[in-house]
Automatic annotation (TrEMBL):
Pfam families in the record: FlgD_ig (PF13860)
Official protein name in the record: FlgD/Vpr Ig-like domain-containing protein
Highest taxon, organism lineage: Bacteria
Residue stretches making up the FlgD/Vpr Ig-like domain: 291-354
Organism (species): candidate division WOR-3 bacterium RBG_13_43_14
InterPro entries registered for this protein in UniProt: FlgD/Vpr_Ig-like, Secre_tail
Length: 366
């Protein structure tokens, strides 16, 4: 037991002119079953025998934990959730006291797993043939009759909100599913937001709700309602290629299973600031029940972002930990530490590091 692959991508993204910013060549002998980003930009890779870690500078694999026959995984905070070929759920806890926990839950031919939020609680969605299964606190809480080759969720969004979409890929069509929730998965209904005449390899969504559709030679970027935004040309990729979006900074990464290469893409429209820390105005503002706070740092830093009320009392810590160099986006759902919606008024958000502090103001108005 001990093996995993983490890549710290020191890049940023936007929706302007895109370019390839990095390329990671993986060992040709490595049999890769799945890939996922961690919450602060790490890339975890699940092989047939282990979870692997790759240093982005030396690019040599470092083995953290071995696991036999793992077929799909997702990350949340300091945990990896893995489905084995036995369709059991495994939880690997990262950090100094690493451990591998085995759940009593057994599923039916799972081929994908993802993490979502619901009222600030972590939940899992798993794709079985003909349905998506919702799991919370190691218990199955419901399922939705949804057929999907692949599905994608919006990182940081509240899936107790019936308007928050789940995106699915089926027969080269992208569907948006709304009307349901974690507590009412049977309520989901779909509409087609994009259809292609040629094969879609994969798709993913980012924290802003943008959908990235991977073809053999390009990526089409859509808004959450399917409105066309841009096209990103790429080198030809093979069937089975995967696209990933980093939840902390929306980096794009493409894995080509034939070439055993991970390519990272960034937008040149949003470069690094000359300042060490840049804290941007939140959008939207005023805030109803959701806002996005964007910041950039010019080197990896440990930081916290805290919401304060007008008299200086802390309301909620919305970010804490080590972040990579680049642009990052954090979602705040206008709630306090207990998950209660905050009252209307003026608030401040404060980004604090050992090398500097930045403060901005926002307004909650419903």
């Amino acid at each position: 037991m001990k093996k995993l692959l983490v890549i710290f991508f020191l890049v940023c993204t936007g929706l302007g002119e895109w370019r390839q910013s990095d390329e990671i060549a993986l060992p040709k002998s490595l049999q890769i079953n799945d890939l996922t980003f961690g919450s602060t930009g790490e890339l975890y890779i699940l092989s047939t025998t282990s979870i692997l870690e790759v240093d982005s500078t030396a690019k040599n694999p470092l083995y953290i934990e071995s696991i036999n026959n793992g077929k799909t995984l997702t990350a949340w905070s300091n945990r990896l959730f893995i489905i084995g070929n036995d369709d059991q759920l495994y939880t690997f806890v990262l950090g100094n006291e690493q451990s591998l926990e085995i759940s009593d839950l057994v599923f039916n031919s799972i081929h994908q797993i993802a993490t979502i939020q619901s009222n600030n609680n972590n939940c899992l969605i798993l794709s079985e043939p003909g349905s998506l299964v919702f799991v919370r606190d190691n218990k199955t809480i419901g399922s939705a009759m949804i057929i999907a080759e692949r599905f994608s969720v919006i990182p940081g969004a509240d899936y107790n909100d019936r308007n928050t979409p789940i995106f699915t890929l089926s027969n080269s069509r992208i569907y948006s599913w709304t009307g349901g929730s974690v507590t009412n998965p049977a309520g989901y209904s779909s509409k087609v937001i994009y259809s292609a005449s040629h094969n879609i390899f994969d798709m993913i969504s980012d924290a802003g709700g943008n959908v990235y559709v991977l073809f053999a030679d390009s990526i089409i970027v859509l808004e959450s309602d399917g409105k066309y935004k841009t096209k990103i040309p790429i080198d030809q990729v093979s069937i089975g290629a995967r696209i990933l979006s980093g939840p902390s900074n929306n980096n794009l990464a493409i894995y080509d299973p034939f070439k055993k290469i991970v390519k990272v893409f960034t937008s040149s429209s949003k470069g690094y600031s000359s300042e060490l820390i840049t804290l941007n105005a939140n959008q939207p503002n005023p805030v109803d029940n959701y806002t996005e706070i964007e910041f950039s740092i010019n080197q990896p830093l440990d930081l916290t972002i805290t919401i304060y009320n007008l008299i200086g009392e802390p309301v909620k810590v919305i970010a804490r930990g080590k972040y990579t160099k680049g642009i990052h986006r954090i979602i705040w759902h206008a709630d306090d530490e207990k998950g209660n919606m905050v009252p209307n008024g003026v608030y401040f958000y404060r980004l604090e590091t050992k090398k500097g502090v930045a403060i901005k103001q926002l307004v909650v108005l419903r």
